[in-house]
Amino acid sequence: MALVVGKDKATGSFAITFADIDLNDGNQDSVSIDGDNEEIEEVKTNVSSSGTSKRKRKNVQESVVDEQIKFVGEQLGKIANALEKFTADKTPHLYEEVMSMGEEGFDDDFLCSVFDYLVSHESEAKAFFS
Questions:
Q1: How far is CA 118 from its chain centroid?
Q2: Residue ranges making up the domain that contains 71
Q3: How far apart are alpha carbons 37 and 113 in whole angstroms?
Q4: Residue 71's pLDDT is what?
Q5: How confident is the model at residue 101 (pLDDT cuts 50, 70, 90)?
Q6: Hey, how many other C-beta atoms are within 10 angstroms of the C-beta on 118?
């Protein structure tokens, strides 16, 4: 019955013909049956210790990455603080400084035009404060 249905043939990686047998001389997956139990235990020990060292390496790598992420976060915080200081609205302070010059005898219309000019020219406003 197996010959009629065709279930006598192997499938997948086990399906080889007589011509294929000579091609697989360098098969590295084969295991010798005459092996020593001590060698097998040694291989098992090596495999388990390499798994442990890989796990340790992964934990060390993760901690290094975590430290780097923390450092980058701190640096971004410093940059954000610097940008806030840089872009802080200094217009009210500028207005007070310019209008305080009215006590020195300058006309209010002139001081308003000076204020408008300094608001539109930031570099001159910085020089005015220094």
A1: 43
A2: 35-87
A3: 97
A4: 93
A5: confident
A6: 21
CB atoms within 10 A of CB 27: 7
Rounded distance, CA 118 to CA 123, Å? Answer: 8
**Whether the model pTM is above 0.70:** no
Q: Is residue 2 part of a domain?
A: no
Could you tell me if residue 75 is inside a domain?
A: yes
Total residues belonging to the chain: 130
In this structure, the answer to whether residues 43 and 79 fall within a common structural domain is yes
**118/116 Cα distance (integer angstroms):** 6
pLDDT at 75: 94
Asked if residue 15 belongs to a domain, the reply is no
Q: What is the pLDDT of residue 91?
A: 79
Distance of alpha carbon 6 from alpha carbon 3, whole angstroms: 5
Give the model's confidence band at 76: pLDDT under 50 very low, under 70 low, under 90 confident, else very high: very high
